[in-house]
Amino acid sequence: MRNIRLTIAYDGSGYCGWQRQKNGLSVQEELERVLTTICNEEITLHGAGRTDAGVHARAMAAHFHTNSPIPPANLQKGLNSMLPGAVRVIALDVMSMDFHARFSAHSKSYHYRISTDRIQPPWERNYVTHVPFELTRDDMRACLDAIEGCHDFASFETAGSRDRELTTGRGSVRTISRARLVEEDEHHLCFEFSGDGFLRHMIRNLMGTILEVGKKRKSPQDFTNILRSRKRSAAGATAPPHGLYLVEVKY
Amino acid sequence: MRNIRLTIAYDGSGYCGWQRQKNGLSVQEELERVLTTICNEEITLHGAGRTDAGVHARAMAAHFHTNSPIPPANLQKGLNSMLPGAVRVIALDVMSMDFHARFSAHSKSYHYRISTDRIQPPWERNYVTHVPFELTRDDMRACLDAIEGCHDFASFETAGSRDRELTTGRGSVRTISRARLVEEDEHHLCFEFSGDGFLRHMIRNLMGTILEVGKKRKSPQDFTNILRSRKRSAAGATAPPHGLYLVEVKY
After folding, report:
1. Mutate which of B123, B129, B130, B242 to test chain A, going by most A C-beta atoms within 10 A?
2. Of A61, A213, A225, B132, which has the most beta carbons under 10 Å away?
3. What is the DSSP string of B40-52?
């Protein structure tokens, strides 16, 4: 028996998300189907976390156990030749048996990409959130500064399905080690977040309110007040999924 | 009556090409449908040329005549609000009545994008042709040098549907004013072509053979011999459509 870790990039546009679901095809299912064929035994894949429908991954991690003796390089090649182009296995590693993609993770990083072009190029429409406004970058940076560190993010958690096993004892408290705004070019912004864990829709909810601040509809002080209020109702809308990328899971 | 020029960006992935066709939705149809609604009269759009299924445009040009009095800025806004995100009107200009998107064009420019990454990021799969090989750039540049100037490109023309009105007298002779290889980054190459006209599949056929040279399966001298032979059978395969972009039509 071996314990194998996959590092996976995917285009979430055509999927109902990472996690297996009744209605719609998930990335997990797509991978399990091909793994089951190649390994010639029923495979269950355990992901490092979930992503919503339309959210992308540069490097999702997942593990599975198998009795198949197929060498790692051949397994990776076989997977990529059988998977659709929307899902790519970018690395494959044999781990010790106690490695768990979810429970062994120390931190995760996400990017949220924005374009402020007046007209969005068509090939960006599923990969970058279009916000055709002058965004006040200093004010948005003040919001990012406010969330770095350990905070109760209840204001930015969507109700339901909190991961109980991981959150025992810490409720909606999370530590954000890094929250930065990178200006990729004149019209493209990338919001970068790293932390020990993220609540349901947390980054999309944060981005919804940060964009309100960028548009001058709220102030950085409003943002801080919303964070402190620990009330979801105080915050802004949930930003769309297609600008969001899971970029790294650290072990 | 006004004569209006549209400059259009589109993602060709979901279309059967620019030109109206019986089987499949074309970009032209998509635009004509919305124009007919907004202008409240039957609109026929005349494009600067055709693009194949899967080929993209950063700036296709097209014109139409209308009696509608709607101001240009409103027309552009209305179009973009009614069109799907895959098609964007990036400019709209009122022209003199003798302007014709096809016959008034002096030159066109195309880009062909290649990625040489070992594994292609999923979000590039419809927008960049994946060629996971070490490509010999100097040899490919020698091919590009060989096609600059006035040549008979019969070896790189796919049979059928040559535009008779435009090609009277010049057969498969075309003048390429510029053919360059730009290295976007370590793993991304952009082949840039400008000329007074292009034959059917000409750039995709040129790219098919240039990539053979890049992979060292043919030499730059072979390429020159193929060009001189004026026989389609001498050249390589047709490169896939999704790396190709119409980037400019000059008037």
Report:
1. B123
2. A61
3. TS----EESS--B
Distance of residue A199 Cα from the nearest chain B Cα, in angstroms: 26
Helix (H) or strand (E) holding A37: helix A27-39
Question: Tens digit of pLDDT for each residue in B22-72?
Answer: 889 999 999 999 999 999 999 999 999 999 999 999 999 999 999 999 999
Cβ-Cβ pairs closer than 8 A, A with B, add up to: 50
Residue B92 has pLDDT above 70, yes or no: yes
* Token representation of residue A81: 């030749």
Chosen for mutation from A87, A123, A129, A246 (greatest number of chain B CBs closer than 10 Å) is A123
Is the pLDDT at A23 greater than 80? The verdict is: yes
Lowest mean pLDDT among A139-153, A230-244, B204-218: A230-244
CB spacing of B121 vs A10 below 8 angstroms: no
Catalytic residue chosen out of the listed positions B11, B52, B98, B117: B52
Q: From chain A, pick out residues whose CB is under 8 angstroms from the CB of B9.
A: 119, 121-122
Looking at residue B23, its pLDDT comes to: 83
ipTM: 0.88
- pLDDT tens-place string over residues A97-154: 999 999 999 999 999 999 999 999 999 999 999 999 999 999 999 999 999 999 999 9
A175-201 confidence digits (pLDDT tens):
999 999 999 999 999 999 999 999 999
Residues of B in contact with A126 (CB under 8 A): 123
Interchain contact B90–A (C-beta under 8 A): yes
- Which residues does A19 contact at the CB level (< 8 Å), separation at least 6? A26, A28, A47, A50
**Cβ-contact A113, A129 below 8 angstroms:** yes
Which residue from B6, B45, B97, B48 is spatially nearest to B250, judged by alpha carbons? B48
Q: Is A58 in a helix, a strand, or coil?
A: strand
* B212 CB burial (10 A radius; 0-12, 13-18, 19+): buried
Q: Is residue B52 flagged as an active site residue?
A: yes
Pick from A24, A22, A3: which is nearest to A12 by CA?
A24
CA distance A4 to chain B (A): 20
Contacts of B125 in chain A (CB under 8 A): 11, 85-86
